[in-house]
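Course assignment 3, question 2. Fill in each field.
Student: A.L.
Task: Predict the tertiary structure for the chain below.
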Amino acid sequence: MSEETQRPQRGDNGGDRLAIPRADKDAMEGGPRFKGKRRRKVSYLTANKIYYVDYKEVNILRRFLNDRAKILPSRQSGNTAGQQRMIAEAIRRAREMALLPYAIQEMGSDRREYGRGRERYAPRQSEQQQQQQQAPQADKE
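Answer field:
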């Protein structure tokens, strides 16, 4: 095509200004960013050459549950699709046989408490105030 028939490129905003090449938004001034693909996680099953997991192998199945007894997604565990289906089926069977829990109710001390028992907007007490309140109660008993 000749120069006469070429149309100038429009900017992103559709205005009359010609498109001006910009610096990459993601590029940092400190140096080049890592743009390659991330290395895929290796599954525990693949690393240990485990080809089949039965529902009775609770110690292996626990590796694929989080602290709330939910099944970890394959992007976190590194399982292939077939391994993930096998693990999910084994966990479901182990739960049915009461070898694994469906859900965990206890909350760790590091987790916030939500629910009916706690007022949502109640002012929080500092740790020192809580210890002072607990100390006189312990002395009375």
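Instructor remarks: Helices lie at 44-47, 58-61, 74-77, 81-96, 127-140. Residues 41-106 form a domain with the 30s Ribosomal Protein S18 fold (CATH 4.10.640.10).
Grade: pending
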